[in-house]
Amino acid sequence: MKKWKVGIVGLSRGKGFVNVFDAHPEVSLTAICDIDEEKLQVVGDAFKIPDKARFTNFDDFVNADIDVVMISTPIPLHTEQTVKSLEAGKHILCEQTVAYTVEECQQVVDAVKRSGKIYMMGENYCYFHYVREWKKIVDSEKLGEIVYAEGEYIHQIVDLLVDKNSGNFFWRHQRPPIWYCAHTLGPILMLMNDRVVKGCGLTSGFKAFPQYKDHPGFLDFEVGLFKTEKGAVVKILRSQVPASPHFVWYSLYGTEGHLENKRPQGEGFLYVNGETPPNGKIITSEVVDPNAPEEAKKGGHGTSEYFMIRDFINALNNNTTPPIDVIKATEWTIPGLIAHQSAMKGGEWLDVPLLG
After folding, report:
1. What does the pLDDT look like over 150-206, one tens digit per residue?
2. CA pair distance 258, 269, nearest whole angstrom
3. Is residue 190 within 8 Å of residue 127, measured between CB atoms?
4. Distance (Å, rounded) from C-alpha 24 to C-alpha 16?
């Protein structure tokens, strides 16, 4: 049995992936990379990575004896590191989103095509247990044709935008909230088997943090409204700074039914014409698959990363297109970029480019 030699760059976010890759029978965790030597030591010692396979320099790391690069670094580094990894002959599993500009997204698409290697974006929310169960419901056509969907991802991360003691900004301060859109759009578009072709955006501005008005990461809220190729309408809401608990919420309306999860997490709602009670019924919206093996819980975000990594390794084993290939990854990234562009123009409708 071939063992894929995997290297992980970015150990703040990547530490959880170390656990899941290490548990996979067809993977050998071979190298790690981070600019923080303390993280390298902690993770390297915990997983018995030899000193010679612990890198602080990405160029040295990407040319090491590895087959796969897992990119878990800040998003501004994704394009350069993805392209370099592909040019070095590595397969890629990259955290969302692809990049920060449409031009960079095209660079990644072109590099994947030139290399012939497999690229998958690690949109783990598509692998929440309840989202995977929803996919069966939607694919059964019980809901009919999906005509409208909403998604909200609210996550207060002010401490990841600015150091309140020193006043120094962290990398996310430059990221408008709706740029980080794949946790909302990804599951919705995956469930609908659709893609966005036009979009607009609006923002409420900097009412909560007026002192940071030059830093788009502090925008109170951004809303994106999109038209899909199949003629459906999708709305997403994003914020990184609200006085609110952390939650993710999805709602889908079809011609024959309605499906959504509830706040707080744990319950969901399903209505199907002629099948459920007139007021619908409560269903689960747990992120953990109760039937998954114990090792599936070693990563983060419930059991999502366990199943995501297995889909990626299966694509490598079979040399097939992964579920979230480079084209789909750009289709889940670019609408957020366009929505922010629109919001800065007061909500003008704009075409969303489809890359090929």
Report:
1. 999 999 999 999 999 999 999 999 999 999 999 999 999 999 999 999 999 999 999
2. 8
3. no
4. 13
Among residues 70, 71, 69, 32, the alpha carbon closest in space to that of 54 is found at 32
CATH 3.40.50.720, the chain: domain bounds: 4-122
One-character DSSP codes across 81-127: HHHHHHHTT-EEEEES-S-SSHHHHHHHHHHHHHHT--EEEE-GGGG
Give Dmax over CA atoms of the chain in angstroms.
64
Cα torsion angle, 296, 301, 302, 304, sign: negative
Q: Are 149 and 258 in contact (CB under 8 A)?
A: no
pTM comes to 0.94
Tokens of 351: 């075409």
* % of the chain at pLDDT higher than 70: 99
CATH class given for the domain over 4-122: alpha beta
Nearest to 241 by CA among 212, 261, 267, 264: 212
Residue 81 Cα distances to 18, 71, 169, 208, angstroms: 19, 8, 23, 35
Q: How far apart are CA 306 and CA 21, in angstroms?
A: 8
Give 259-279 pLDDT, tens digit per residue: 999 876 678 999 999 999 999
Say how far apart CA 46 and CA 40 lie, in whole Å: 10
The CA distance from 22 to 235, in Å, is 38
Q: Yes or no: say if 226 and 234 are a contact pair by the CB < 8 Å rule.
A: yes
The neighbour count for residue 237, using CB atoms within 10 Å, is 17
- The CATH number given to 125-351 is 3.30.360.10
Tally: H helices and E strands in the chain: 9, 15
